[in-house]
């Protein structure tokens, strides 16, 4: 399912951070009605119940929808025991109210500098994800905000390899080394902040491209992400945004325009979420 969704573009995942209550249910229902089939949530977003409710009431066969959630035990912190981690995963499945979750990710590797047991916690949490996958209530397991060293470290302890990774990627923060490594490892990349929360909407070259393709700057950035082979995640609670973002599948950026966007990299300075970065692997 993941491979099929990731390989047959355009696939854009609906971001849900800071969307709650009835407006969350409505947003997801509108997204599903518009043809979106991937949803991104996390325990810390506090909306798994609403997302489950929207999916269950949509009438769309469960196997056509891909829901990713992410676990943590606090800010940049992971469970320290296997039981805590297993309970955490099962809590997500229960709140979603579905038989299974398509993907569960470790939201953040933890703070190695501040917490001497961060490495042990991510290893323990990974073991819980492996067991959840073997038990069948989680279909895919993965990681988020891991850097290249964290990905490499997993070779020493993972019995099951991750199949997807979520990270911030857009022209201003490209993570080339990490992207190369993830591609080599066969990981599907979900790119968050793919439209940079619109922070570059006034960039003159981006505006010029948007005018030439007769789309918006957000659509150009979504298209860039798709052409890079990522699954972009975008939050679009405004119905016009939600519907129009599908246009990212209707045009192709030229090689020259991809190169112009590719020249905007600023390393960690270009990150929208620098507090989630774990080193300058920009
Ligand atoms: N793994 C992680 O640690 C992590 C970290 C950050 C984010 N994420 C995930 O990624 C998702 C996306 O990140 P984000 O929400 O921070 O940023 P984003 O998707 O880059 O930006 C969201 C903003 O863009 C606006 N927007 C959407 N489509 C638009 C369009 N066509 N034209 C103009 N504006 C448009 C939205 O407005 P409206 O809502 O008003 O439409 C919203 O204000 C999150 O919701 C979350 O699911 C994951």
TrEMBL record:
> What is the protein name given in its UniProt record?
NADP-dependent oxidoreductase domain-containing protein
Write down the PROSITE patterns for this protein, in alphabetical order: ALDOKETO_REDUCTASE_2
Which keywords accompany this UniProt record? NADP, Oxidoreductase
Write out the catalytic residues in the record: 45
The Gene Ontology terms for molecular function here are: oxidoreductase activity, acting on the CH-OH group of donors, NAD or NADP as acceptor
Asked if the keyword Cell membrane belongs to this entry, the reply reads no
User: What is the protein's species of origin?
Assistant: Epicoccum nigrum (Soil fungus)
- Domain NADP-dependent oxidoreductase: residue ranges: 21-259
What Pfam families does UniProt report for this protein, alphabetically? Answer: Aldo_ket_red (PF00248)
| Family to which the UniProt record says this protein belongs | Belongs to the aldo/keto reductase family.
Sites binding substrate sit at 107
Q: Site described as Lowers pKa of active site Tyr, positions? A: 70
InterPro entries assigned to the protein according to its UniProt record, in alphabetical order: AKR, Aldo/ket_reductase_CS, NAD(P)_OxRdtase_dom_sf, NADP_OxRdtase_dom
Q: Which domain of life is it from?
A: Eukaryota
């Amino acid at each position: 399912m993941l491979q099929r969704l990731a390989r047959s573009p355009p696939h854009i995942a609906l971001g849900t951070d800071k969307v709650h209550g009835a407006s969350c249910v409505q947003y997801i229902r509108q997204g599903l009605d518009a043809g979106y089939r991937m949803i991104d949530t996390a325990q810390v977003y506090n909306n798994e119940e609403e997302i489950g409710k929207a999916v269950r009431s949509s009438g769309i066969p469960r196997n056509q929808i891909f829901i990713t959630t992410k676990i943590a035990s606090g800010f940049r912190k992971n469970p320290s025991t296997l039981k805590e981690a297993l309970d955490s995963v099962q809590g997500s499945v229960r709140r979603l109210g579905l038989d299974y979750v398509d993907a569960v990710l470790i939201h953040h590797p933890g703070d190695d500098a501040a917490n001497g047991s961060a490495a042990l916690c991510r290893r323990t949490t990974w073991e819980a994800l492996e067991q959840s996958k073997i038990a069948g209530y989680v279909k895919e397991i993965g990681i988020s905000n891991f850097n290249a060293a964290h990905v490499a470290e997993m070779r020493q302890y993972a019995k099951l390899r991750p199949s997807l990774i979520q990270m911030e990627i857009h022209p201003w923060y490209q993570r080339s080394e990490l992207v190369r490594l993830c591609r080599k490892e066969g990981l599907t990349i979900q790119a968050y902040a793919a439209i940079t929360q619109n922070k570059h909407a006034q960039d003159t070259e981006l505006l010029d491209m948007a005018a030439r393709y007769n789309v918006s700057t957000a659509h150009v950035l979504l298209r860039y992400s798709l052409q890079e082979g990522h699954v972009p995640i975008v939050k679009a609670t405004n119905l016009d945004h939600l519907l129009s973002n599908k246009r990212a599948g209707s045009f192709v950026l030229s090689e020259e325009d991809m190169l112009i966007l590719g020249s905007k990299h600023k390393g960690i300075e270009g990150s929208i979420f620098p507090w989630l970065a774990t080193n300058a692997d920009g």
